[in-house]
Design a protein that fits this description.
Number of helices: 0
Structural class: mainly beta
Distance between the termini: 21 Å
Shape: globular
Largest sheet: 4 strands, antiparallel
């Protein structure tokens, strides 16, 4: 899933087992994007990348835990 939360900023999410968002859809804040796999395939890690002007940036300013 690729989201554009701001101009020239992209979020890339990979590793989900099921995706709810559709291509071109405007996703509402807080809406689920998908589900992680059940772990039976051995692939249960979520990959997150933030890109600004086509370059990767530290995602800390976007994701606070």
């Amino acid at each position: 899933v690729i989201l554009e939360p701001a101009i020239n900023t992209l979020f890339v999410f990979a590793g989900m087992g099921q995706i709810f968002a559709k291509t071109g859809e405007v996703v509402i804040k807080g809406a689920p994007l998908g589900l992680m796999p059940d772990g039976s395939t051995g692939q249960d890690a979520l990959y997150i990348e933030v890109r600004k002007d086509q370059s990767p940036v530290n995602p800390a300013m976007w994701f606070r835990f």
